[in-house]
Amino acid sequence: MTMNIDVTYTKSLKPKPIADNIAFGKHFSDHMAVIDYSEEKGWYDPRIVPYEPITLDPAAMIFHYGQTVFEGLKAYRTEDDRILLFRPEKNFRRLNLSSDRISIPTIDEEFALSCLKKLLEIEKDWIPTAEGNSLYIRPFIFSTEPNLSLAPSKTYQFMIILSPVGSYYKEGIQPVGIHVEDEYTRAVRGGTGTAKTAGNYAAAYKAQEKATQEGYSQVLWLDGVEKKYIEEVGSMNVFFKINGEVITPELSGSILEGITRMSIIEMLKDWGVPVIERRISLEELYDAYDKGQVEEAFGTGTAAVISPVGELNWDGRKMIINNKQIGELSQKLYDTLTGIQTGKVADPYDWTVEVK
Amino acid sequence: MTMNIDVTYTKSLKPKPIADNIAFGKHFSDHMAVIDYSEEKGWYDPRIVPYEPITLDPAAMIFHYGQTVFEGLKAYRTEDDRILLFRPEKNFRRLNLSSDRISIPTIDEEFALSCLKKLLEIEKDWIPTAEGNSLYIRPFIFSTEPNLSLAPSKTYQFMIILSPVGSYYKEGIQPVGIHVEDEYTRAVRGGTGTAKTAGNYAAAYKAQEKATQEGYSQVLWLDGVEKKYIEEVGSMNVFFKINGEVITPELSGSILEGITRMSIIEMLKDWGVPVIERRISLEELYDAYDKGQVEEAFGTGTAAVISPVGELNWDGRKMIINNKQIGELSQKLYDTLTGIQTGKVADPYDWTVEVK
Questions:
Q1: pLDDT: is A327 or B3 the higher one?
Q2: How far is A23 from chain B (nearest CA, A)?
Q3: Does A166 or B271 have the greater pLDDT score?
Q4: Which end of chain A has the lower number of beta carbons within 10 A, N or C?
Q5: Helix, coil or strand: residue B29
Q6: Is the Cβ pair B202, A151 closer than 8 Å?
Q7: pLDDT above 90 as % of chain A
């Protein structure tokens, strides 16, 4: 795709939220990127327009049969005022993998990324400068055809919206308490667990409600078949350091292939820390705990980067990890990865992409 | 809820589609019902307004995290010009059960039904009169809060739209061929399979694609855990008549509780036909077939009412049912149920509700 990206500028700029006090996902920049799709034209009319409402027929398929996928990534402003993205090509790759699962036509990944870069050039003043702040980027695609027939939509819209976000850890990193969910299921092999699609998230709220009621902040998800194996924590991938070795659940067909997950594994290998992707059951984890071998645990994702787990509760069987403190390795991973993302430490892996 | 339903009439009526040539789900009536929800007010401002587009912020949660539920039912016009609904209270009951699974606030079922009745009074000329035609009714709820935080929406909209539909069987009832799906999963216990929520439907297209490529019209879904037990056919419940007994998969926590399914079971019991809800594996079905005991098979749902299955293909193991003809019992169920729905035969069960 080598189409021209048409730009329409807004007539009135919005006030920007005050740094360090920015709630996640509630403020949006002045412009957004849009690309339309129809069966006849494919993806067409890429454009940057003022941030404005979406208007859809009440019969638009998104409201009924839910074909929609999304991505989440961040733009960081470096101390020397450069704009960095972190492995954005991986996000657009995954967007297409998600689309394929949900029967949405794929998009030219490089072109979608070039739209994002152009949008960021225009919106660069929306990238907060304060420590830990960033500009959250939300590409998404949704079905638009007004038709109640049960079949994939013939029309779609791709959009990118931008949202400045404050620091995830305003008061320092606090390990979280996790409720092990053994009733509700997030995903199962053959299902949509590997796709970033809306239905997975709505399905997870019910278990989150239970966790909150019990005083825990997140849910640990088990596999949908045997309800034995660990899959994810909240909307994050999960890692355990057990007896010197780092273990993360293997991509079994129901686990989201996190880009932070992938990067953590690559860093650990580079550092010579033993790391393995394999099935791990709750029983195995609790056995290791009883032997005093569970050293660290953490979730990984775009929002928190690293979210240490301080406590697990599996039907009353409680596990306190590393005295509810962030572990040494978790801290090093957090510092290095956020350092690379924000340009504070060298990027030996060539992960960051500068937006000029 | 005893709120007043405000009515705003459209200024220009649309032309109605020509009977017997009406494509499903593409034409919509002149008005729609709307009720808003906010945390502070609960459900409020019920109104009937001209059919018009929905306008939403691009960050509205429906586009990202997919909290949405829907229902489908039909209004029929009788030969003596009365308007009948079929067990509509069951649809609003199920809407609330779906909402509960997806963390959407429930709605007053009786009030929602009264909104539908009021809408139908205004739109009664949209109910087609031709044989087999009806007015398809689509109540749905979707999340509207503009917020990318991963938490249930604080605002929602409930809507009812109406779509005149032609006869499902324009050229008589044709038994369909079914592809047995053993790779993709529709639903699993603990998941959202019992809810009418958008994500389930988008997730099913991929398997439907495979079925279509192999020359079959629908997918037979197996359980997500063992991939052994029969769950549904396409978006319908499924029944088998084996050696004089009618068997349908029990509601296991991943099967939609169909209102047609429920009605078929009640009718069979009333007629003294042995009917049982239990797990049934594909192996059991094929064993019975080898013994010559599979007499009839059919799907049940609002759209088709009864959809006979003429052929199954499980990885090359083909089963031809009743010589690809509709079975005697299937035909009787179809005739009786559609007869009751359209007021042509007496309704001994008090299932129909007249809209005055």
A1: A327
A2: 9
A3: B271
A4: C
A5: coil
A6: no
A7: 93
Mean pLDDT of A322-346: 97
Q: Do B198 and A55 touch (CB under 8 A)?
A: no
C-alpha triplet B344, B345, B349: angle, nearest 5°:
130
With a cut of 90, say whether residue A295 has pLDDT above it: yes
Top residue of B26, B55, B63, B71 to mutate, by most chain A CBs within 10 Å, is: B63
Confidence at A322, pLDDT banded by 50, 70, 90: very high
Q: Which residues of A touch B199 (CB under 8 A)?
A: 66, 192, 197-200, 202-203
Amino acid at A243: N
- pLDDT tens, residue by residue, B70-93: 999 999 999 999 999 999 999 999
List the one residue out of A319, A321, A315, A317 whose CA is nearest residue A210: A315
Cα-only R_g, chain A:
21
A50-77: burial string, b at 16+ Cβ within 10 Å, e else:
ebeebebbbbbbbbbbbbbbbbbbbbbb
**Consecutive H or E run containing A332:** helix A328-341
CATH numbers and ranges of domains, chain A: 6-165 (3.30.470.10), 176-341 (3.20.10.10)
CA distance B31 to chain A (A): 11
| pLDDT tens digits along A136-171 | 999 999 999 999 999 999 999 999 999 999 888 877
**pLDDT tens track for A211-223:** 999 999 999 999 9
Distance from CA of A153 to the nearest CA of B (A): 10
**What tokens does A195 get?**
């796709």
* Reported ipTM: 0.96
Which of B205, B217, B229 is most worth mutating to test chain A (most A CB atoms within 10 A of its CB)? B205
Q: How many CA atoms lie within 13 A of B348 on its CB side?
A: 5
Extended strands (E) in chain A:
6-7, 31-38, 42-50, 54-56, 68-70, 73-77, 83-86, 134-143, 155-165, 176-181, 218-222, 230-233, 237-242, 245-248, 275-277, 294-301, 305-314, 317-320, 352-355
